[in-house]
Amino acid sequence: MNRRQRQHSRKPLCECWRKRRYSLAEKCGFCAIALAALLFFIAPALAIVPLAVFIVACLLSPFFSTSSFFLPVVSRGKSGQPWVSLTFDDGPDPVSTPLLLHFLRDHGLVATFFVNGDKARRFPDIIRQIVDDGHTIGNHSTSHDNFLMFRGVGRTLAEIGDTQNILADLGVDTKIFRPPVGIVTPGYAQAMAVMGLALVTFRRRPRDLGNRCINGLAAWILTDIRSDDILLLHDAPPRRATVAAWLAELETLVVGIDKRGFAVVSLDSLLGGEVMVKRDWLRNEV
Fold it and tell me: Which listed residue (144, 228, 234, 268) is catalytic?
């Protein structure tokens, strides 16, 4: 990676919270109510239409990773360069993550690891190695509860806050969070605001089901890869294939990215903001 790719502003990504008073969902809700009230006096039978459209939008929006309907979401970069970033969810794992780090080291690549707090607590040495290798770390909740988006605010704050504390004990101050399974609901808004985190999703992902199905992983991503894409991958051990087969798919992906004229850069370079701060005492024994 050249110097230009490494440079980035020190602007915190969570500044979006201070710039936005009402979410798009709130604005649409106000408009839907106002329009329904107006139609009630003009054509009562149609008054339900704007409300129904709003409800459908609320139901569908969580399943679109690029949607900022409920709260600000970062799903791609803004560099304007032919750059992409690799992100890996659900680790660290004592088998697959060290092999992935070796792979990235051999290819001179950097990535961002969205880790689960309980795994970070169990495998602190891997967290150290991730950071020492020049990668960045994001918060992916403590237990990876697949239904966290439907839990109460207290549970959400605890899941995210506990992981922040675990990472802080390891010398990592991360500024970014990615929700389990990538579904964004209004329940995350308060947690992001309270903790000053930016919610980072992705624009492109494989149909790997958390590395349960790695066949064609690279081909699926490469069919629609664009500048400033955040790519979602996983570093959990493959369930129905060997680790060697998984790494071969990653090799195909990296080669394909290069052939298409894209460069893999750090997430902070892609986003133009600092995503993690490394504390000096990370090297100390825990």
Answer: 234
